[in-house]
Amino acid sequence: MILITGFSLIACDSNRVFDKYQTIPNNEWESENIIEFEVPVTDTISRNNVFINLRNNKDYKFNNLFLITQMEFPNGMKLVDTLEYRMTTSDGHWLGKGSSDTKENILFYKEGKQFPEQGTYKFSVQQAMRESSDVEGKDPLEGVSDVGIRIEKIRN
Predict the structure, then answer these.
(1) What is the pLDDT of residue 4?
(2) Are residues 2 and 139 in contact, defined by beta-carbon separation less than 8 angstroms?
(3) Domain count along the chain
(4) CA–CA distance from 33 to each of 10, 13, 119, 151, 155 (Å)?
(5) Domain with 53 in it: what CATH number?
(6) Measured between alpha carbons, how far is 101 from 117 in angstroms, rounded to an integer?
(7) Structural domain harbouring 132
(8) Using an 8 Å Cβ cutoff, are 110 and 98 in contact?
(9) 67 near 85, Cβ under 8 Å?
């Protein structure tokens, strides 16, 4: 039974190209704490979906999340995006998955991305949360425990 379960978990994750998390110290994400990932790419033909994975707990006090992301190509070119994600429904229920106080959110970042050159791509993620009267930003942002990048190959 264990072998069958293990095999089906591997088969379900066969599209995974990259999947890593970094832990946020004390569940308090400082705005200066830029989360970085280096991803070696050899496949320049396949299309991929890129996700930002985020784990939050009940200390997260917002219904949305603003992030500043950067993707740096091996040739040095950089793409910077400011992104907003909903974290709760309109009545305050968490959108992430999980039955405990920690919820896991899988957030689309780049859909159908084809990496045009081989080499190391660098991804960075920075929180950019603000309260309505706060110009400086929410620092630290409480309730975020882990931030990750996942890349999945799209199968036809």
Answers:
(1) 43
(2) no
(3) 1
(4) 33, 30, 25, 22, 35
(5) 2.60.120
(6) 41
(7) 17-153
(8) no
(9) yes
| Inside any domain, residue 9 | no
Distance in angstroms (rounded) separating the CA atoms of residues 55 and 26: 13
Residue 1 lies in a domain: no
Token match 């009940």: residue?
A: 58
Residue 145's contacts (CB-CB under 8 Å, 6 or more residues apart) are: 23, 24, 27, 55, 56, 57, 102
Cα-Cα-Cα-Cα dihedral sign, residues 140, 144, 146, 149: negative
* CB-based contact 156:148 (threshold 8 Å): no
CB 65 within 8 A of CB 117: no
Mean pLDDT per block of 10 residues along the chain (156 residues) reads 42 82 96 96 97 95 95 98 94 86 94 97 95 68 97 90
- 54 within a domain of the structure (yes/no): yes
End-to-end CA distance of the chain: 30
Q: What pLDDT is stored for residue 149 in this prediction?
A: 98
Q: Is 76 left (phi over 0), alpha (psi -120 to 50) or beta?
A: left
∠ CA 145-61-130, nearest 5°, is 95
